[in-house]
Automatic annotation (TrEMBL):
One of its GO terms (molecular function) is DNA binding. SUPFAM superfamilies: YbaB-like. It comes from Micromonospora arborensis. Pfam families: YbaB_DNA_bd. This is YbaB/EbfC family DNA-binding protein. The lineage of its organism: Bacteria, Bacillati, Actinomycetota, Actinomycetes, Micromonosporales. Gene3D superfamilies: Nucleoid-associated protein YbaB-like domain.
Length: 133
């Protein structure tokens, strides 16, 4: 049979570990990202809001044909967006660890209370059965 004190100790350890994790996790802030193409002659900056905030063109790149310029511009934009995706992934919302801790505590208390009730009911049943013998 499961020892109630051992179960309570394991649940207390789990609760403490969850509290420790909630103190050490800090969300990362979004940052701007820059993509380059055409050997650095095209630079596109995507701001922390995910929108293009700057486009810098070296005048020499304008000598390229429109198709080449469009292709290089696309590469620069995609590189900047890829950098933004990496930054956004790092800032995905964290679960509410305080709420999770509160839920674990509530479940622990409820589980222990129910275990005590079951133990009392089993003990009472056993007492009655032994009393009939």
């Amino acid at each position: 049979m499961l020892d109630e004190n051992a179960l309570e100790e394991q649940l207390a350890q789990a609760r403490a570990a969850l509290r420790d994790v909630s103190r050490t996790v800090a969300p990362r802030e979004r940052v701007e990202s820059v993509g380059e193409a055409a050997d650095g002659r095209i630079r596109v900056t995507v701001g922390s809001d995910g929108r293009v905030s700057a486009v810098d063109l070296d005048p020499r790149v304008l000598r390229e044909g429109s198709e080449q310029l469009a292709e290089e511009f696309r590469r620069a934009v995609n590189a900047a967006l890829d950098g933004q995706d990496e930054a956004v992934t790092a800032t995905e919302p964290m679960p509410d660890l305080a709420a999770m801790t509160a839920t674990v505590e509530r479940l622990q208390d409820q589980g222990l209370r129910q275990m005590r009730e079951i133990t009392l009911a089993v003990s009472e049943t056993m007492r009655k059965l032994h009393g009939r013998s």
